[in-house]
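We were asked to recover a plausible sequence for a given structure. The inputs and outputs are reproduced exactly as logged, with field labels preserved.

PROBLEM: sequence recovery
POSITIONS: 300
GIVEN STRUCTURE:
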């Protein structure tokens, strides 16, 4: 397919400033932001996902936040065409699209143009698989020789879909076929490991003080299932366990959740480092100026 325009991607591990950098650069280049986060698509998942607030958006339009109700299945194959539509709309308005997010599979699906081959779901098989604990789903995929990336490890709907593909005789990674839609400049954000860990600790305390536990309690009150919250992983999984008494104290919650987020950030770095086309920015210096030099050359 012919190139339709230019897309700037901002990626990197959690707590490293992707959202803020995206807003600053979008303001500088008359751009709009398309979120590439597998949990921020859900309404009501705000503090737990680090969703950018209206104030933090600073007037920059953001797309693909709050597009599906919690509890509903949502996959990268659904995300991709929605992202294409948002990006094409931005380009048609003469603006610059910024794809910003930490879900590596979502980013790559759009930036690299993954081609998905989705067979019709098998309701009986899906019912059988959805009744299994998430650990059993992972074990079955591992036994089938299917590697699990960080983006699907805690994503129950995606694990179920991968198993459906395997049992239907499909290649679960058929999306490796590419049909790129855009010229892409990819910018990476990050800090030294010890700095990332400190930023995670500071952000976790701030979110808890802002009401993250209450957010999860409200979701449950409004009918969101514990199974769905467990499948979201990280903040939602650990706060659910705190609310149900499996984690006895808030200090224990902070300790266990903090360590889980740090492990996740480490896996994210490993995932993103596989992409040799990423321009990694020095976030300890002046990342806006550094990124602007790259963007000026890319857009010229």
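RECOVERED SEQUENCE:
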């Amino acid at each position: 397919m012919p190139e339709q325009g230019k897309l700037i991607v901002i990626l990197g591990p959690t707590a490293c400033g992707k959202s803020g950098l995206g807003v600053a650069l979008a303001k500088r280049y008359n751009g709009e932001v398309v979120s590439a986060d597998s949990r921020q698509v859900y309404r009501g998942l705000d503090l737990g996902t680090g969703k950018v607030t209206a104030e933090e958006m600073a007037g920059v339009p953001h797309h693909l936040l709050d597009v599906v109700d919690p509890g509903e299945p949502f996959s990268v194959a659904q995300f991709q065409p929605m992202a294409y539509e948002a990006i094409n709309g931005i380009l048609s308005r003469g603006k610059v699209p910024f794809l910003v997010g930490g879900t590596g599979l979502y980013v790559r699906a759009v930036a690299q143009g993954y081609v998905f081959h989705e067979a019709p779901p098998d309701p009986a098989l899906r019912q059988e698989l959805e009744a299994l604990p998430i650990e059993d789903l992972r074990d079955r995929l591992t036994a089938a020789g299917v590697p699990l990336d960080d983006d699907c490890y805690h994503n129950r709907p995606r694990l179920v879909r991968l198993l459906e593909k395997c049992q239907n005789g499909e290649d679960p990674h058929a999306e490796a076929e590419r049909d790129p839609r855009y010229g892409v400049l990819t910018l990476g954000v990050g800090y030294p490991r010890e700095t990332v860990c400190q930023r995670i600790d500071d952000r976790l305390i701030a979110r808890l003080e802002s009401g993250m536990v209450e957010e999860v309690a409200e979701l449950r009150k409004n009918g969101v299932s514990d199974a769905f919250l467990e499948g979201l992983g990280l903040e939602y999984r650990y706060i659910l366990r705190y609310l149900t008494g499996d984690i006895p104290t808030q200090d224990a919650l902070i300790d266990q959740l903090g360590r889980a987020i740090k492990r996740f950030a480490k896996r994210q770095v490993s995932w993103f480092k596989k992409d040799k086309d990423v321009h990694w920015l020095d976030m300890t210096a002046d990342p806006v100026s550094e990124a602007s030099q790259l963007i000026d050359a890319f857009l010229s």
